[in-house]
Amino acid sequence: MLATKVSRDVPAGRESLKLALYDDLMVIPYPKQRIALLETKTPGRLLIHEIYRSLQGESTYAGLPCVFVRTTVCGQRCVWCDTPHAFVEGEEIAADELLSHVLAYNCPLVELTGGEPLLQTEVHPLMTALADAGKTVLLETGGAEDIAQVDRRVHIIMDLKCPDSGECERNRFENLEHLKSKDEIKFVIASRRDFDWTVETIRKHKLDQRHSVLLSAVHDSVALVELADWILASRLDVRMQLQMHKFIWGAKSRGV
Ligand code: SF4
User: Fold this and answer.
1) Chain mean pLDDT for the chain
2) What is the mean pLDDT of residues 59-64?
3) Contact (CB, 8 A) for 239 and 60
4) What is the per-residue burial (b if ≥16 Cβ within 10 Å, else e) of 227-251?
5) Cα(115) to centroid of ligand 1, in Å?
6) Ligand 1 pocket, CB under 6 A
7) Which domains, ranges and CATH numbers included, belong to the chain?
């Protein structure tokens, strides 16, 4: 499911048009080494970093007990990523074994996260099986992978990467067409520049009229009170969120 670059000729002197097209059409392939681990993975099995039960911390489901399935490997490299260990550490597990393992927690809420779950096609039957079993299934995805094939019962929480993440050019804006009204869009803000880009993007695509929009601050980069003031001044109908698990267990904790 590698992203492919799409180009379109832009008439001379129409650079503004090129800029307007940029966020709609440009998808850039990942450097090969970032996803190399998946080339040796056994088909039908999933490469999993960790499975654990904790409190959901970053969505409208925040605060609820949730079983997390964190997949290994991501094609992006957000400069503020708090799960870089998931880029390379993991073990293969058969899909049916993984399903049994998750169901054994007997928890109504299950989240697939990463890494980037959608880099492994095996997550699709897993999400469907979990929904069939009556679970509320959340999918956290970084916004660079195609979400069109995701089971419609799955609640998607999709990032749109801001400029200071270093991965803004990989945003797959055509995904917006596939989001359901209950799905959520998340922006992680590292600077005033990120916030301005976020406001422009929300207004351009009317995101706050179509979805729950979540804004969070990069820890140690933007003060919470600053982000709160910016949101209130913008008058956008968005939700500020606090990455609850970091307040409870600390910013560097893993598996929570
Ligand atoms: S998409 Fe998520 S897992 Fe991948 S680098 Fe960015 S924050 Fe980390």
Assistant:
1) 89
2) 95
3) yes
4) beebbeebebebbebebebbeeeee
5) 6
6) 74, 76-78, 81, 83, 114-116, 142
7) 33-249 (3.20.20.70)
